[in-house]
Amino acid sequence: MLIRHTAYYALARIVPGLLNFFAIAVYTRMLTPSDYGVYAVVVAWIGLANVVCFQWLRLALLRFFQSHKDNPDRFLGVILFAYILIVLATGCIGLVLYITWTDPIGKKLILLAVPLTWVQAWFELNLELTRSRLNPVRYGIMSTTKAVFFLGCGIMFVFLGCRFYGPLLGLFVGMLAASMGFCRKNWSSTHLSIPSKQQIWPLLAYGMPLMASFALAFVVATSDRLILAWLLGGAAAGIYSAGYDIVFQVITLVMVTVNLAGYPLAVKQMEGLGHKAARLQLIENGTLLLLVAVPVLCVFLTLAPQIAFVLLGEQFREDAILLVPWVALAAFVAGIRAYHFDLVFQLSRKTIYQVGVTGIAALTNIIFNYLCIPMFGIVGAAYATLVAYLVAMLLSLFWGRRLFSISLLNRDTAKICLSGGIMTACLLLLHREFGLTALILQVLLGGTVYVGSIFFANVCDIRRIIFKQVWPGS
């Protein structure tokens, strides 16, 4: 079931992922580093507001929907009431910011950022509801709709002279279109209801620590570009954001696909059969997580110059070549922690541990950014991010073992790492060729070598699975 659901979500994510990937390539050619820096910083603040205010609601929906699946309408009514309440509160905060802000451009950005935060929260809430209902087809349609409008409308607005407003307006239109077009069925039978203490308390007890945790995690992910903008200027933040996003989006896309399929299965095992079954499911999830993430990491580590040359505008390339390998390592470590070790806290409903992990990581990231950026420039922010994610992963592993132990150390993961090493060696033989055609051929060759190595090593008993599909009666 895990592999089948992962395949479904891979198909559901691949088109929007490629479109978002392509958007970075386009925007880095249409916008200056300074304008891209403004866009990146605004998106960072919107994301932080979304995490602080709405993330707990999405996570509570995902965690508790299975226990209300027999009669979900009342539960969804509580979720809807909480969403509207948060919208009203954030609207008041936005109004205060608009009145007190003196910069005219800042006022315009606030007018756009507040409704963009609401639309993003509603869109992502509906994605989680679709995911909870194990409907990857609708998930894919919604994600693709958002990505198409984001890219198409964003390019149009930039072409019309909107500068950094263009991608932001495209993002707003994309999420609004996806929400309006596909979310009505999710709430058609839901009636708004004021929750009782018995209804809301489990959601708050579970979600509030996660809200703090994800807010701190967002600090780890975005404080580097905010500090860069302050210390080195908006252009430095724009260059860093472009190189960072083009790597982080790809690696996160690959790893989150496994989590999209695997986490609901782990929740189902936890609710139905208990800790032991959930632990076995997490170990299976973790092996598959490594299986899909290792080859992507190898590509970024070995082909950073080729990737920057093909995908980024000329003003962004030189620094991105130095950034890509370090950001790739940071994204890989962050994914292993978030989509494997941290799930122990969520399944055990001990999310307060996660607050400690991400709090220490956020503090580490801020300190190392202030130390490394003056010494190493833009690449210093990548060093700081990698250190912060390593600290977070080690803490998550250590504290998670107190609840129930999961590991990535087994025979299959050793085979995966060996296959990745073979792939890297082959890519290094061809790393001097540049251009789109050369990059495609290099990736295809590396992928072929990796798949062949996995098949030869029989990772996860893959030979038997394939032969059974090809010759069912054998």
Q: What attributes does this structure have?
A:
mainly alpha, single chain, 474 residues, 17 helices
Tally of contiguous helical segments = 17
Radius of gyration (CA) equals 22 Å
Number of strands: 0
Mean pLDDT: 78
Strand content: under 5%
Q: Based on CA inertia axes, which overall geometry fits?
A: globular
For the biggest sheet, the summary is: none
What's the order of the H and E elements? HHHHHHHHHHHHHHHHH
Amino- and carboxy-terminal Cα gap:
21 Å
Number of domains: 1
Low-confidence parts, pLDDT < 50 over ≥5 residues? none
Approximate helicity band: over 70%
Structural class: mainly alpha
In short:
With 474 residues, the protein is mainly α.
What does this 3D model show about the protein?
The chain is mostly helical and 474 residues long. The chain has one domain (2-408). Helices cover 85% and strands 0% of the residues. It contains 17 helices and no strands. It has helices at residues 2-30, 33-64, 72-100, 104-132, 136-159, 165-182, 197-232, 234-273, 275-302, 304-311, 314-341, 343-347, 352-376, 378-400, 411-428, 436-457, 462-470.
